[in-house]
Amino acid sequence: MKPINQYAKPSTYTTAITDDHNGSIRFNTTDVRSETESATDVSVYVAALVEAAEDYLNGDEWRQAAMEATPCEFRPAGSEATGQQIITMADRTVTFDPRKNWDNQTIEKGEVLAGSVIFTEATDTALVISHRATILDHNLMAGFTVQSLEQTADKMLRDIEYSAAGSIAKILSTAPSTETFAKTKPTGKPVEIAEDLIDILTMHINQTVGTSLSDFVVLLPVSLVAVLERAAQRAGVGDIEDLIGAFVQPYSGTDYGLFLLPKYFTSLSYREDGHGDVWRIQATRNGARQAWDIEISTVVDIVANGKVKVKLTEDGLQAETVAFPMITNVKLTA
């Protein structure tokens, strides 16, 4: 064996020591790695993943998809969420916390007439969407392909979408403008379950904010997706949206039931940063774990609290602003 100082640094990626019993050891140097072995370089993988996420989430394609899913706005940094003022479609009696009027009467209900204006504002709780993935070096040292990178990116985006929708469902489940109903959970074959679910949703349409299911976005647990997809196949339609007649947004996590979100009365308000980007995608080297940490985050306000003025006296001189029920939450019980 030669003295250590007589060994020359390998200059190409083909330099290797091969042993029949212990495999081979390959020497790589920085001057050849980027050109010849980028498919085993974790930093190249991370850079490509961040670039793909940045191009999609902060591009026009994602904004268009977000607006098709539910009404939303992308507001400049430092500005407030935009409330809405929309006229009701039908008469509605609303129940609110007891109040005393000028005649010393306790009022718990008030009638909202068709043509009254509903004001919407953001919920008390904003949603912070933040997801982190740790990519270990040793998981990618054997190499990767473009297809595996695309699959990883698609899976990450879907997980973020479903998880964020679950957080929205949690906020809406306790929002003042959410009306909750308990119904028995349908059983049987997928077609039977789907028909019962559609019937339940149809029977609980809030006529003051919509007249058909197409006027709503249906927020439902991801566990129902497979059932509804099978029912759609049996019915000979393309997808769940065609089966139900409304846009469907699945959510993961705790089951809060199904939600009917009126398209014309609710919206999401995404906050842009100083550069006009909605999403922040950041990659950080985690030396302690020999890995890269990728974090994707944004902040969104849920404009779903409805307010309306009701009369507390016969003459209408005294009026109070109360919470108006706009969102329907159907909880399925055993």
Explain what the structure shows.
This protein has 334 residues and is α+β, with helices and mostly antiparallel strands. It folds into 2 domains: 1-36, no CATH class; 38-333, no CATH class. It contains 8 helices and 17 strands. It has helices at 30-36, 42-57, 60-69, 137-140, 146-173, 190-203, 225-235, 240-244; strands at 16-19, 23-26, 72-75, 84-87, 92-100, 106-112, 117-122, 127-136, 178-184, 216-221, 247-251, 258-262, 267-271, 280-286, 291-311, 319-324, 327-333. α2 packs across α5 and α6 crosses α7 (225-235). The longest helix has 28 residues, at 146-173. It is globular. 24% of the residues are buried. The mean pLDDT is 84.
Observed structural traits:
single chain, 334 residues, globular, 28% helix, alpha+beta, eight-stranded mixed beta sheet, 8 helices
Topology:
Blueprint: E1 16-19, E2 23-26, H1 30-36, H2 42-57, H3 60-69, E3 72-75, E4 84-87, E5 92-100, E6 106-112, E7 117-122, E8 127-136, H4 137-140, H5 146-173, E9 178-184, H6 190-203, E10 216-221, H7 225-235, H8 240-244, E11 247-251, E12 258-262, E13 267-271, E14 280-286, E15 291-311, E16 319-324, E17 327-333
Look at the helices and sheets and give the structural class.
alpha+beta
Tally of distinct domains: 2
Q: Low-confidence stretches at least 5 residues in length (pLDDT < 50)?
A: none
Distance between the termini: 76 Å
Strand content: 35-45%
Task: Give me the number of helical elements.
Answer: 8
Order of helices and strands: EEHHHEEEEEEHHEHEHHEEEEEEE
Major sheet attributes: 8 strands, mixed
What overall form do the CA principal axes indicate?
Answer: globular
Q: Helical percent range?
A: 25-40%
The overall strand count is 17
Rg: 28 Å
Mean pLDDT: 84
